[in-house]
Specification:
Structural class: alpha+beta
Radius of gyration: 25 Å
Distance between the termini: 86 Å
Shape: elongated
Strand content: 5-15%
């Protein structure tokens, strides 16, 4: 067989080597599952953010009842639907994800920094979507006389991410 500048390798040898290398790279990518790893990191971050927000609400309720009452009034004043998005922006109307449709989300956000800021190291927001920021965090709150629920507006996957606790 003739060689064509491939250091003694035939064209078929080079093609076979490239195909084998491509197969190995593809196998490594499929086994590593980078999309799954990123989705898991986003899910973990959302879960941690929901936990931090719930802890801030419960700490506010336990340590500063007067400010907690003002917080309840702000939640009630945000609108009639059952869920209120946490944030700093005045307008939170519209659909913001599977758990925050326009039908169940109040039109105004509740100012997270004003009420919960002292109990948080930073204002959490769902960084996995360009829709969310500190103005519209991507996390919702349902606050009644007997319970508080904090959750993610747009969780990845089918399962919602939320915590619900009774108030004393």
């Amino acid at each position: 067989m003739a060689t064509y500048g491939y250091l003694g390798r035939t064209t078929l040898d080079v093609i076979t080597a490239l195909a084998t290398a491509g197969f190995i790279v593809l196998t490594v990518i499929l086994v590593a599952n980078p999309a799954g790893v990123l989705a898991e990191k986003s899910h973990t971050r959302r879960t941690d953010d929901v936990r931090a927000l719930m802890q801030a609400v419960l700490t506010l309720q336990a340590t500063d009842p007067t400010n907690f009452y003002a917080f309840q009034q702000a939640v009630d004043g945000a609108g009639s639907p059952v869920r209120v998005m946490l944030g700093g922006g005045a307008d939170c109307s519209g659909d913001w994800g599977s758990q925050c449709s326009d039908a169940i989300l109040a039109d105004h956000c509740v100012d997270t920094a004003a009420y919960l800021g002292p109990y948080l190291s930073h204002i959490p927001f769902d960084a996995s979507s360009p829709l969310f920021s500190e103005r519209q965090t991507g996390y919702y709150l349902t606050l009644t006389q007997s319970t508080v629920e904090v959750g993610a507006c747009n969780p990845s996957g089918l399962d919602p991410i939320f915590l619900s606790r009774p108030l004393p």
